[in-house]
Design a protein that fits this description.
It contains 5 helices and 5 strands. Strand 4 and strand 5 form a beta hairpin. Strands 1-5-4-3-2 form a 5-stranded antiparallel beta sheet. 30% of the residues are buried. The chain is an alpha+beta fold.
């Protein structure tokens, strides 16, 4: 379920002080019911999924991702610039000492994302290319019914006019195909992992 931006901005996440010049593009409730200490399990699930490639599971989502990666290859969108996108330093350079010296989060393999930091209630990963610099933020929040669930926010900083045009062009496709398929996939994998833990 898509959430208002305030569901992210009103919480005391540490990412606010690190990516304060980024725009909160999307916020989603994740179908991942659990206990107060289950964020690490969700982060592990994300890490495994990202290592396998950022694609999605529905037909529409797969087609959209295939088109996106092909265009990116043809136009050079996904090639990293010096530093992190158009000469910008990576957000790791902005981390305060306690986050920089604390747990970083999982290795994400060859995916375009790199873990920034991981706490008991939030994890952030960064990616950058010629179009955007972006953060995927995963928080662990009370669900209002005595349990907890994941919450995903995407923060974006477009790289110039190209980045702004790119974000505007892909917006309808994100909501039509990409996010719905991604959220369904996250929910199915979470249910499977819970069942496996219960059986074990």
């Amino acid at each position: 379920m898509r959430l208002p931006r305030t569901d992210h901005t009103d919480r005391p996440w540490r990412i606010h002080g690190i990516a304060d010049d980024f725009t909160v593009e999307d916020v989603w409730a994740l179908p991942t019911p659990g206990g107060p200490d289950d964020l690490a399990l969700l982060v592990s699930q994300f890490a495994e999924g990202l290592k396998g490639g950022v694609n999605g599971d529905g037909f529409v989502s797969r087609v959209l991702f295939a088109v996106r990666w092909k265009l990116g290859a043809l136009l050079g969108w996904d090639e990293p610039d010096s530093g992190t996108g158009v000469g910008r330093p990576g957000l790791r350079d902005r981390l305060p000492a306690d986050l920089r010296d604390g747990p970083r989060g999982p290795d994400l393999g060859s995916s375009p994302f790199t873990s920034l930091y991981q706490r008991e209630d939030e994890w952030a990963a960064e990616m950058a290319n010629k179009t955007v610099q972006a953060v995927m933020h995963i928080g662990w929040v009370p669900d209002g019914a005595g349990g907890y669930r994941g919450q995903m926010a995407v923060l974006v900083k477009p790289n110039g006019l190209l980045g702004s045009l790119y974000m505007a062009a892909i917006k309808p496709f994100r909501y039509l195909g990409v996010y719905p398929a991604l959220i369904r996939s996250i929910g199915r994998e979470w249910e499977a992992s819970v069942a496996q833990r219960s059986a074990g």
